[in-house]
Amino acid sequence: MTVLVGRRPLSLERAYRHLGDASSGGVVLFVGRVRPEDQRGRPLVALDYEADVRMAVGALRRLEGECARRFGTRKVFVEHRIGRLRVGTASVIVGAAAPHRAAAFQAARFLIECLKLEAPIWKTDRYRSNRRTVAR
Fold first, then answer.
1. Can you give the pLDDT at residue 135?
2. How many angstroms separate the CA atoms of 56 and 43, rounded?
3. CA 32/CA 51 separation, integer angstroms
4. For the whole model, what pTM was predicted?
5. How far apart are CA 56 and CA 126, in angstroms?
6. CB 84: neighbour CB atoms within 10 A?
7. Can you list the domains of the chain with their CATH numbers?
8. What is the pLDDT, as a whole number, of residue 126?
9. Residues lower than pLDDT 50 in the chain
10. Distance between CA atoms of 18 and 11, rounded to whole angstroms?
11. Separation between Cα atoms, residue 41 and residue 24, nearest integer Å
């Protein structure tokens, strides 16, 4: 498993290379991007992401075994950016490689949902008016 939390731009190529595995018939990559509006429909200009990196990496590494047990994944990949990200910028990539496509899709969905619930990564909405709200 590769788990990265940092400031460098995300790379689909890096994720796909990591997931390369001749025994996996299915490889799924999900990219999450900063939306142009918040959950209430108010326009955003950016999101500020913060994390307890050590704890976030630990939480995400625990998911590797869970993916292998539940979905038979051969490899998984998770990378999340921190810092200020403008609208349209990729903030997270999750990926899974498994013998069959259904398992790869299920594992990728599991990874992104668990990341949102379990990893200590927080975002602060940035608006044109400089109003702020903190959300997970």
1. 54
2. 28
3. 17
4. 0.89
5. 23
6. 15
7. 2-135 (3.90.1170.40)
8. 94
9. none
10. 11
11. 40
User: Tens digits of per-residue pLDDT, 18-41?
Assistant: 999 889 999 999 999 999 999 999
C-alpha span between 90 and 73 (Å, rounded): 24
d(CA 16, CA 95) in angstroms, rounded, equals 8
CB half-sphere exposure, 81, CA atoms < 13 A = 20
> Is the Cβ–Cβ distance between 9 and 74 less than 8 Å?
no
Three-class DSSP labels, the chain? CEEEEECCCCCHHHHHHHHCCCCCCEEEEEEEECCCECCCCCECCEEEEEECHHHHHHHHHHHHHHHHHHHCCCEEEEEEECEEEECCCEEEEEEEEECCHHHHHHHHHHHHHHHHHHCCEEEEEECCCCCEEEEC
Separation between Cα atoms, residue 120 and residue 136, nearest integer Å? 9
Q: Which amino acid is at 66?
A: E
* Tokens (6 digits) for 59: 């939480």
